[in-house]
Amino acid sequence: MQIEAVKAAYRRYARIYDTVFGPVLQPGRRALLEALNLKPGDRVLEVGGKPVRTFGEIASALRGRADQPIVFKIERDGKPFDLTITPMRVDGAGEGALIGINSVVMNGARIGAHSLIGANTLIAEGKEIPEGVLVLGSPGKIVRELKQQEKDFLLQIAQGYIDRARFYRENLKPM
Fold it and tell me: What pTM was estimated for this model as a whole?
Protein backbone atom coordinates (compact mmCIF):
# COMPACT_ATOMS: atom_id res chain seq x y z
CA MET A 1 0.00 0.00 0.00
CA GLN A 2 2.79 2.46 0.85
CA ILE A 3 4.62 1.76 -2.40
CA GLU A 4 1.47 2.59 -4.41
CA ALA A 5 1.10 5.86 -2.49
CA VAL A 6 4.73 6.76 -3.23
CA LYS A 7 4.26 5.92 -6.92
CA ALA A 8 1.10 8.04 -7.08
CA ALA A 9 2.86 10.97 -5.38
CA TYR A 10 5.77 10.66 -7.80
CA ARG A 11 3.42 10.68 -10.79
CA ARG A 12 1.78 13.88 -9.49
CA TYR A 13 5.20 15.46 -8.82
CA ALA A 14 6.65 14.40 -12.18
CA ARG A 15 3.61 15.79 -14.02
CA ILE A 16 4.20 19.22 -12.46
CA TYR A 17 7.81 19.37 -13.58
CA ASP A 18 7.50 17.47 -16.86
CA THR A 19 8.22 19.25 -20.16
CA VAL A 20 4.71 18.75 -21.58
CA PHE A 21 2.68 21.90 -22.24
CA GLY A 22 -0.69 21.47 -20.55
CA PRO A 23 -3.95 23.16 -21.44
CA VAL A 24 -3.27 26.89 -21.57
CA LEU A 25 -6.11 28.92 -20.12
CA GLN A 26 -4.63 32.42 -19.91
CA PRO A 27 -5.06 34.26 -23.23
CA GLY A 28 -1.54 35.77 -23.10
CA ARG A 29 0.14 32.42 -22.57
CA ARG A 30 -2.03 30.79 -25.27
CA ALA A 31 -0.94 33.49 -27.72
CA LEU A 32 2.68 32.91 -26.77
CA LEU A 33 2.45 29.17 -27.46
CA GLU A 34 0.72 29.83 -30.77
CA ALA A 35 3.38 32.39 -31.74
CA LEU A 36 6.04 29.73 -31.04
CA ASN A 37 4.08 27.13 -33.06
CA LEU A 38 3.56 25.00 -29.93
CA LYS A 39 0.37 23.28 -28.82
CA PRO A 40 -0.92 21.82 -25.55
CA GLY A 41 0.39 18.27 -25.31
CA ASP A 42 3.70 19.07 -27.01
CA ARG A 43 6.71 17.71 -25.12
CA VAL A 44 10.13 19.34 -25.25
CA LEU A 45 12.71 16.56 -25.66
CA GLU A 46 15.90 18.56 -26.28
CA VAL A 47 17.12 22.13 -26.29
CA GLY A 48 20.27 22.88 -28.26
CA GLY A 49 20.94 19.15 -28.70
CA LYS A 50 20.81 18.42 -24.94
CA PRO A 51 18.01 16.32 -23.43
CA VAL A 52 15.71 18.12 -20.97
CA ARG A 53 13.32 16.63 -18.43
CA THR A 54 11.95 19.72 -16.66
CA PHE A 55 10.99 23.28 -17.49
CA GLY A 56 13.83 24.35 -15.17
CA GLU A 57 16.30 22.54 -17.45
CA ILE A 58 14.77 24.35 -20.44
CA ALA A 59 15.27 27.71 -18.69
CA SER A 60 18.88 26.77 -17.87
CA ALA A 61 19.55 25.81 -21.50
CA LEU A 62 18.29 29.22 -22.63
CA ARG A 63 20.32 31.29 -20.17
CA GLY A 64 22.80 33.51 -21.97
CA ARG A 65 21.31 32.64 -25.38
CA ALA A 66 19.34 35.85 -26.00
CA ASP A 67 19.13 36.77 -29.68
CA GLN A 68 20.72 33.43 -30.68
CA PRO A 69 18.62 30.85 -32.55
CA ILE A 70 18.40 27.53 -30.68
CA VAL A 71 16.86 24.27 -31.89
CA PHE A 72 14.17 22.62 -29.76
CA LYS A 73 13.31 18.98 -30.44
CA ILE A 74 9.56 18.70 -29.82
CA GLU A 75 7.35 15.61 -29.71
CA ARG A 76 3.79 16.07 -30.95
CA ASP A 77 1.40 13.13 -31.19
CA GLY A 78 4.34 10.74 -30.78
CA LYS A 79 6.34 12.25 -33.66
CA PRO A 80 9.49 14.34 -33.07
CA PHE A 81 10.27 17.49 -35.04
CA ASP A 82 12.73 20.37 -34.76
CA LEU A 83 11.66 23.92 -34.03
CA THR A 84 14.10 26.83 -34.06
CA ILE A 85 13.32 29.56 -31.54
CA THR A 86 15.27 32.76 -30.88
CA PRO A 87 14.97 33.87 -27.22
CA MET A 88 14.50 37.62 -26.89
CA ARG A 89 16.80 39.91 -24.93
CA VAL A 90 14.87 42.12 -22.51
CA ASP A 91 16.31 45.57 -23.15
CA GLY A 92 13.42 47.41 -21.53
CA ALA A 93 14.33 46.55 -17.94
CA GLY A 94 15.39 49.50 -15.79
CA GLU A 95 18.32 49.54 -13.37
CA GLY A 96 17.87 47.15 -10.47
CA ALA A 97 14.74 45.54 -11.93
CA LEU A 98 14.55 41.79 -11.38
CA ILE A 99 12.50 39.39 -13.51
CA GLY A 100 11.55 36.10 -11.83
CA ILE A 101 12.18 32.65 -13.25
CA ASN A 102 9.79 31.40 -15.95
CA SER A 103 8.39 34.89 -16.47
CA VAL A 104 7.61 36.04 -19.99
CA VAL A 105 8.15 39.63 -21.10
CA MET A 106 6.59 40.24 -24.50
CA ASN A 107 7.97 42.53 -27.23
CA GLY A 108 8.02 46.23 -26.48
CA ALA A 109 7.26 45.88 -22.77
CA ARG A 110 9.21 48.18 -20.45
CA ILE A 111 10.02 47.39 -16.83
CA GLY A 112 10.67 50.37 -14.57
CA ALA A 113 13.81 50.62 -12.44
CA HIS A 114 13.75 48.88 -9.05
CA SER A 115 10.67 46.82 -9.96
CA LEU A 116 10.23 43.14 -9.15
CA ILE A 117 8.46 40.85 -11.62
CA GLY A 118 7.45 37.68 -9.76
CA ALA A 119 8.09 34.16 -11.02
CA ASN A 120 5.74 32.88 -13.76
CA THR A 121 4.45 36.38 -14.52
CA LEU A 122 3.39 37.38 -18.03
CA ILE A 123 4.11 40.98 -19.06
CA ALA A 124 1.99 41.72 -22.13
CA GLU A 125 3.30 43.23 -25.36
CA GLY A 126 3.88 46.97 -25.06
CA LYS A 127 3.02 47.03 -21.32
CA GLU A 128 4.67 49.82 -19.28
CA ILE A 129 5.55 48.86 -15.71
CA PRO A 130 6.33 51.91 -13.55
CA GLU A 131 9.35 52.18 -11.27
CA GLY A 132 9.45 50.50 -7.88
CA VAL A 133 6.51 48.11 -8.00
CA LEU A 134 5.83 44.40 -7.41
CA VAL A 135 4.08 42.71 -10.35
CA LEU A 136 2.52 39.23 -10.18
CA GLY A 137 0.21 37.04 -12.23
CA SER A 138 -0.72 36.22 -15.78
CA PRO A 139 -1.31 38.77 -17.07
CA GLY A 140 0.96 40.72 -14.73
CA LYS A 141 -0.77 43.14 -12.39
CA ILE A 142 0.79 45.65 -10.03
CA VAL A 143 0.27 44.33 -6.52
CA ARG A 144 1.88 47.17 -4.58
CA GLU A 145 4.65 49.71 -4.47
CA LEU A 146 7.97 48.55 -3.04
CA LYS A 147 9.40 50.21 0.08
CA GLN A 148 12.79 51.92 -0.19
CA GLN A 149 14.37 49.14 1.88
CA GLU A 150 13.08 46.56 -0.63
CA LYS A 151 14.38 48.60 -3.59
CA ASP A 152 17.81 48.79 -1.95
CA PHE A 153 17.76 45.03 -1.40
CA LEU A 154 16.85 44.45 -5.08
CA LEU A 155 19.90 46.49 -6.10
CA GLN A 156 22.08 44.30 -3.86
CA ILE A 157 20.64 41.14 -5.41
CA ALA A 158 21.08 42.50 -8.96
CA GLN A 159 24.69 43.46 -8.20
CA GLY A 160 25.28 39.94 -6.85
CA TYR A 161 24.07 38.45 -10.15
CA ILE A 162 26.36 40.79 -12.10
CA ASP A 163 29.36 39.95 -9.88
CA ARG A 164 28.78 36.18 -10.14
CA ALA A 165 28.34 36.36 -13.92
CA ARG A 166 31.63 38.25 -14.24
CA PHE A 167 33.38 35.78 -11.92
CA TYR A 168 32.07 32.73 -13.81
CA ARG A 169 32.91 34.24 -17.19
CA GLU A 170 36.46 34.97 -16.08
CA ASN A 171 37.19 31.84 -14.02
CA LEU A 172 35.19 28.87 -15.31
CA LYS A 173 36.70 26.91 -18.15
CA PRO A 174 34.90 24.37 -20.40
CA MET A 175 35.46 20.75 -19.44
Answer: 0.49
